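Hey L., structure's done. Input below.
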Amino acid sequence: MTARHFSAGIWLVLAAACLPAGDGQTRERKLENRNGVQARDLDPSEKGLVTGVGIEAHDIQSMTNQMARDMFASGFLNGLSKPPRILIDEQEFRNEGSQIINRRMITQRLMTELNRASQGRMAFVGQRYAGMVAKQRELKREGVTDVGTTGMTGAQAGVDYFLGGAIMTLDSRDPKSGVIQRYNQIAFELVDAETGAVVWSGMYEFQRAAADDVVYR
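Output:
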């Protein structure tokens, strides 16, 4: 080997040593991801790839659709001369079950379905925005802004009915087989905000069992 060739070999070794150590690991991770479960679009109205014994996306869609149909079929709107003002808020929808769940996912979708199906026969009050509404009312009355296009009222909108309810579960487990079984019950009640009378109630329930449950977050 000539001195020139020997020198070139040393430079190649040094160059290889200076390469980032993570490059090989990155290539390995890419290969692992390529062999794993790829991300895909799923229909939220059907069971997904990860399922357990609790309330899942397709249950939320199914129950809110059913509750919207049942509420209109009950006929509680019959005889009302004006669209009733209804408050649907997760604060009155309690989670008394064993599963961690975002209650607003249920109440928000139910309100959206009812608003879409009512076609103006119901009005929904957003009391969660009461602070912002109060601020806008003050700006109008101080002349900072004009009164808008709908005019002003004496006070914020009052509520005729509010929707309450609860999520309840009953869990059991076979110590021999390890099978977990859960009875899920979701109840809704439409309450007269003046008298406290329950003018409509509905319930959605199902039971599931699995050898291994999933972690709900």
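The chain has a mean pLDDT of 84. The chain has five helices and five strands.

-- N.
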